[in-house]
Amino acid sequence: MSKAGRWAMLIAPLLWVSAQGNTQIPDGLTYDQARWHPLHFKPASETAADYQCLACHADILERRVRSESPAGVKASEALAWYETLDTYEGEEETFHRRHLVTNFAIQVMDLKCRTCHLGNDPREEAGMSHAGGDPTLIQRKQVDPEICHLCHGQFPYEHMGIPGSWLEYGPAFQNNCLLCHMMFRTNRHQVNYLKPQAIEALAKEKEDVCFGCHGGRPWYRTSYPYPRHPWPGMPEAVPDWAKDRPTVSERRFLIGIVPPEELPAAPPKQGAALRTR
Ligand code: HEC
Ligand code: HEC
Ligand code: HEC
Ligand code: HEC
Ligand code: HEC
Fold first, then answer.
1. Does residue 271 belong to any structural domain of this protein?
2. Which residues line ligand 1 (CB under 6 A)?
3. Global model pTM greater than 0.85
4. 116 in a structural domain
5. 97 lines ligand 2 (CB under 6 A)
6. Which of 83, 97, 144, 216 sits CB 3.0–4.6 Å from 211 for a disulfide?
7. Number of structural domains the chain divides into
């Protein structure tokens, strides 16, 4: 190989790093050691604190959107349909900033890196691609999009005795979810990535607070099958649509807010049965 060729091989990974963004590699670690850092994998990914991720990925929260697209559309003039709710404020922001640092986000949510990033294998990115493959990994994604469904599903009017969409029927209820939700399903949002008191307080000030996460900016055609927590005054009969619903939130969303002995049992590992066969 020519001298230049050898140089190219040496610097290629460095160029790749800069092309990927501005991930910081701490002194003493090679790129590969950082790339394969245990924090990217279970079990460490399940308990990682944000500052640990941000030590290398600070740019995730620093990056800003372009002020103008290559075709010349100015960010300041862009307004998408999901940016028209009364909770939306400020200039265009990146996806990560909109969930982690903008005003509304920090008022009602407490998302962490690990809420969405549960670890992935950068080489396989597919769970069962070979006999030794890790069945707990997600398929070709860095995040399991199930998490998005929780806050970006449809408005489940058919479970509420409301005849149709909130946009159509909301005015009949003064656009106020609390008219009914002072009584129904009042035991809600007790999870480690939301701020339940703040949500209730803010919902009294702004119409779209509740609707925003329950149909106001849906990326899905269905609503999320939420757990159905018992509430004071709950009727005894369980409606048909709710027969298969869990009655507590997912275990990992309760860690840190209920004592360890009250956590529901860990679910069996996905694919575990396949693996032992
Ligand atoms: C020691 C440094 C370091 C730490 C700590 C670290 N990362 Fe990374 N991470 C990297 C590098 C290097 C890459 C490769 C991509 C690049 O060059 O930008 C990467 C890639 C990723 C990717 C892209 C994966 C893919 O398949 O392309 C995600 C998502 C990610 N990291 C999330 C996290 C999260 C979440 C945490 C904390 C739990 C974390 N990282 C902690 C250095 C680190
Ligand atoms: C609301 C969910 C969510 C949260 C919270 C979140 N991420 Fe992400 N992240 C995503 C999604 C979705 C992608 C894109 C995944 C894909 O392309 O498959 C992504 C991509 C990434 C990537 C690789 C792509 C890139 O833009 O460089 C890194 C690195 C990353 N996230 C780090 C972090 C860190 C660090 C945190 C915490 C400060 C964090 N994320 C919090 C959902 C989230
Ligand atoms: C815990 C609730 C929650 C989760 C989980 C969540 N989001 Fe969001 N998302 C929000 C809220 C709240 C807003 C709007 C914030 C506002 O009005 O300022 C939002 C806004 C957005 C926007 C619009 C951003 C903008 O600035 O216009 C996109 C796109 C988005 N989410 C995609 C996703 C994706 C993809 C996922 C899964 C990886 C996800 N969200 C997970 C609550 C969530
Ligand atoms: C006319 C009264 C009424 C109004 C108005 C109303 N709801 Fe409901 N909602 C209900 C009832 C009743 C249920 C189902 C109770 C049960 O589980 O038996 C319900 C259930 C829900 C559920 C859980 C659905 C599921 O599948 O588990 C969500 C989420 C919800 N409402 C959000 C909202 C939001 C957000 C608004 C305002 C945009 C709203 N509701 C307005 C009466 C109402
Ligand atoms: C930032 C997003 C967000 C906002 C704002 C929000 N919700 Fe939710 N809501 C969720 C998520 C996520 C869940 C599921 C939590 C869980 O797993 O227990 C949920 C669950 C519910 C449930 C099911 C309760 C049960 O039985 O566990 C109802 C009802 C509900 N929300 C109504 C409302 C109402 C009413 C408001 C306004 C006062 C509101 N939501 C505001 C995200 C949101």
1. no
2. 17, 20-21, 23, 25-26, 29, 31, 34-35, 37, 39-40, 45, 48, 52-53, 55-57, 113-114, 117, 120, 122, 142
3. yes
4. no
5. no
6. 216
7. 1
Among protein residues, the one with the nearest Cα to ligand 3's atom 6 is 148
Query: Which residue, among 155, 134, 153, has the nearest Cα to 145 in the 3D structure?
Result: 153
Which structural domain range is residue 204 located in? 145-234+241-260
State pLDDT tens for residues 230-242: 999 999 999 999 9
Confirm or reject: Cβ of 209 under 6 Å from ligand 5: yes
Domain presence at residue 177? yes
* Tokens representing residue 247 in the block: 């009655």
Quick check: is 104 in a domain?
no
Whether the pLDDT of residue 243 is over 50: the answer is yes
pLDDT of residue 265: 84
